[in-house]
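Ticket #4471: structure export looks truncated?
Reporter: QA, pipeline team
Priority: medium

Steps to reproduce: submit the single chain below to the structure queue and open the exported record.
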Amino acid sequence: KMLDLINSMLDISKLESNTMRVEQKDYLLGSLIFDINKNVLENKTKENLVFNISVNQMCPNNLYGDYEKILKIINTVLLNAISYTDYGEVKLNINCEKKTEEMYEFIFHITNSGHAMQVETFNRTFDDLIKLSDKSNTVIDASSLRFIVAKGLIDIIGGDIEFINEEGKGTQYIIKIKQKITNPNGLNVV
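Actual output as written to the record:
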């Protein structure tokens, strides 16, 4: 946990100083899905919680973008959803929409049955956490830090995140990220 906190602080420092770089490379959507699933299964400790991934089979598999940042974003939001859901289900639905011959927008729709994140918590920035810790003389929440980093990463790769909270129905996160495809003429579905 201490290493996680240090890494989040380093990421926030890079984001605040505009020194975080986008590093694009070829990758496979199938590899991203595998790594997301592996990370969730390694970190999901609640027996009464089900995790499911569904993928639109028409989404292209051969992509070009910042794999590490996308993986970190999706893992962070998923683990946040899981941490606040004691029982029921957390789902990741991956869909895509063709924008041009070489560009798709990927929609990562994360839902959970129990999490009731407040809008104020979703909208927090690093400065807000510092102010809160000064007022209450408490330790900064590592989960909130990770979430702030994820939102910053979404911004620098040109994505978007939407948050919907329905009381009694759980929370939805809709993350949209445009990615180039590396084989627009092939049938490269997952």
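Status: closed, not a bug. The export was complete when the record was re-opened. Leaving a note from the reviewer for reference: Helices lie at 2-16, 29-43, 67-83, 119-122, 126-136, 142-156.
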